[in-house]
Specification:
This protein is of the alpha/beta class and 332 residues long. The protein is 40% helix and 20% strand. Strands 1, 2, 3, 4, 5, 6, 7, 8, 9 and 10 form a 10-stranded mixed beta sheet that branches. The chain is globular.
């Protein structure tokens, strides 16, 4: 009996150490992200003009990605806006971008290179159309722009697209009934202040800093864009179906609106990529976009509107397989 005791003790010790190792292994598996390797390499993200919301959002998202995926190098590229952004991603000149749904649909309907490879990652926030005039201007509607000098944005911008649609809906030919100028948001405010233009269109998130700054030292007004024009936009068909009636809240531009909200038109912005983009990378980037909403939203008000419940609706684009994987992983 006495000789058997050491054998039993050794057996118990062996079983105990095995169990301890198993518990330790499970604990390490739980605590350490052993299978969650950060993507590496370089990706390009096409943003927008230096003073626009796309650029500011892109810069803040770049910082969030650096925190979540430290081995990934994200390079930002300035652009004229949505139309150029769509083309860049479709043709491989950029990997990810933000673009308005009307610009995406316009590119797809035209059957341009790479259109069939475009995929959505998330619906982000809405762009609101601004029609800005001096407060003393007699312009009260889009139709009143006839014969005026109007900045409608660069050729590759989203604002150019929506401005031309709105002018047509108001019965104006952008090439004949106004004097169109290709200024972007970087120069529009100064041109208006110097009376070199009579009005300018802008399409962006609320608020756009360039318009906020202009309103603080120069008396401006936002011209209402009524629901009657939205109905006429929808009659145009095609990409115009993505415009909807919206209201700019009175606190978006306090100096310009002076306590009154303004009727306008809005269009959704989409985070997008290509079909061939790595699924694991796209899943993680989509996760970062949703998780960083509050952090980015503290500096870019429009980003506060990014919502997991609506982010999945990237019409007219099919969801990228990586983005779909992310949404399934967080589904209740």
């Amino acid at each position: 009996m006495l000789k058997a005791l050491p054998r039993i003790g050794r057996r118990r010790a062996l079983l105990g150490s095995t169990a301890a190792c198993a518990v330790l292994g499970l604990l390490l598996w739980w605590l350490l992200p052993l299978g969650d390797v950060s993507p590496s390499g370089t990706v390009t993200f096409s943003t927008g003009t230096p003073t626009g919301v796309y650029q500011k959002y892109g810069t803040l998202l770049q910082h969030a990605i650096a925190h979540d995926m430290p081995k990934l190098d994200v390079r930002l590229l300035n652009s004229d806006g949505s139309q150029e952004n769509v083309q860049r991603v479709a043709t491989g000149r950029a990997d990810f971008t933000i673009a308005a749904a009307d610009a995406v649909e316009t590119y797809r309907l035209a059957g341009k290179p790479g259109a069939d490879r475009l995929r959505g990652c998330a619906r982000l926030y809405d762009d609101y159309v601004h029609l800005v005039v001096p407060r003393s201007s007699t312009v009260q509607s889009v139709a009143d722009l006839k014969g005026r000098r109007v900045a409608i944005g660069p050729g590759g911008s989203g604002v150019r697209l929506v401005a031309e649609h709105l002018l047509a809906a108001a019965g104006l030919d952008p090439r004949k009934d106004i004097t169109p100028l290709s200024d972007g948001i970087g120069t529009m405010p100064e041109q208006l202040e110097r009376h070199r233009i009579d009005a300018f269109f802008w399409s962006g998130g609320l608020p756009t800093s360039a318009i906020t700054e202009l309103s603080r030292h120069f008396a401006i007004r936002l011209v209402p864009i009524g629901s009657d024009l939205v109905a006429k936009l929808h009659e145009q068909g095609g990409a115009s179906r993505y415009y909807r009636a919206a209201v700019m809240p009175a606190d978006a531009y306090p100096y310009a609106e002076q306590g009154s909200s303004v009727q306008t038109v809005a269009v959704a912005n989409l985070l997008m990529t290509r079909q061939d983009m790595n699924a694991d990378l796209t899943e993680k980037l989509t996760r970062t976009v949703i998780d960083s909403r509050d952090g980015i939203g503290a500096q870019v008000h429009a980003a506060q509107l990014v919502d997991l419940r609506t982010a999945i609706y990237t019409d007219p684009l099919e969801l990228h397989v990586g983005a779909r994987r992310y949404y399934r992983s967080v589904k209740p």
